[in-house]
Amino acid sequence: MKVFITGGTGLIGSAVVAELLANGHTVVALARSDSAEAAVRAAGAAPWRGGLADLNVLRAGADQADGVIHLAFRNDFSSAEAVASSVAEETAALLTLGETLVGSNRPLVTVSGTPWVPGRLSTESDPIPTDGPVGGRGRTVGEILALESRGVRTSAVRLPRTVHNNGDGGFAGLLTQIARRTGVSGYPGDGTQRWPAVHALDAAVLFRLALESAPAGTAWHAVDDEGDAVRDIAAVIGRRLGVPARSVPQDNFGPLGAIFAMDQPSSSAHTRAALGWEPTHPKLLADLEHIQA
């Protein structure tokens, strides 16, 4: 299958590109800069020059492909306004990709986050949130999945709060960045809230499986660790960096503070049973041991 992918040079995207190529697919990856283009070529894929805001470029890329995987997102969480701008950019891009594939029965795999449900693990049947700082992403994914009625084999891979590789990535990676900057490995509240996690190489396998075989309009959970206590995550980060781990005010985490404070464990039991997905790479706390002081 010839696959057009956005976000193919990021931590998750580069793993997805490698997984696709290793399983016989060809890959055309959106590349917004000379360095991104070089990275795409080095990975063995073909670059498609442009950015997420270049809707005509996206339309042409999707039109010539047998399937599309969308991963790109401008990860600017510096302010509520920056988050809103990133969400708006992604929404326009995703709707463009979806409309391009209408009536073709080609697959479009997009990305979402695992939902949180008070008092229990979230499952694939739970709706994703459509409110809060990134609620717009949830609304857009809902629109994309609804394109199943218009001849697009849509699916969404829901990623947990931390997608990691060699100790970097996701919410845990943000905690590490903050700890380096402030000299404290902080967590909101008492730190008993749980975050799910998955290794990027395991998540990449699920994206491939969804592309190849997921029924239209379905959602899947790329969850290995169902929920690690945030204070346990912070403790490993603090030990690796040689800084204290302790509770800090929620406001220290900016627009994401409210999300950081939530208990949000998640299950992937249905995904494993239905698609045969089985994670094999290190879990989060073990992978954080790769952090260098």
Q: What is the level 1 CATH name of the largest domain?
A: Alpha Beta
Residue-averaged pLDDT, rounded?
95
Q: How would a crystallographer describe the biggest sheet?
A: 7 strands, parallel
Structural class: alpha/beta
- In the CATH hierarchy, the architecture of the largest domain is 3-Layer(aba) Sandwich
| Morphology call | globular
Quickly count the helices: 11
Based on CA atoms alone, the radius of gyration comes out at 18 Å
Note down, in words, how this protein is organized.
The chain folds into 2 domains: 2-161 and 199-224, NAD(P)-binding Rossmann-like Domain (Rossmann fold, 3-Layer(aba) Sandwich); 163-195 and 226-265 and 281-290, UDP-galactose 4-epimerase, domain 1. The protein contains 11 helices and 12 strands. The chain has helices at residues 11-22, 34-43, 55-63, 80-101, 135-145, 170-182, 200-213, 230-241, 257-260, 269-275, 284-287; strands spanning 2-6, 26-31, 46-49, 67-70, 107-113, 153-159, 162-164, 185-187, 194-199, 218-221, 225-229, 245-247. The strands form 3 sheets. It has a 7-stranded parallel sheet with strand order 3-2-1-4-5-6-10, with helices on both faces. Helix 4 (80-101) runs parallel beside helix 5 (135-145). The protein is globular and about 55 Å long. The protein starts with a strand and ends in a 6-residue tail after the last helix. The mean pLDDT is 95.
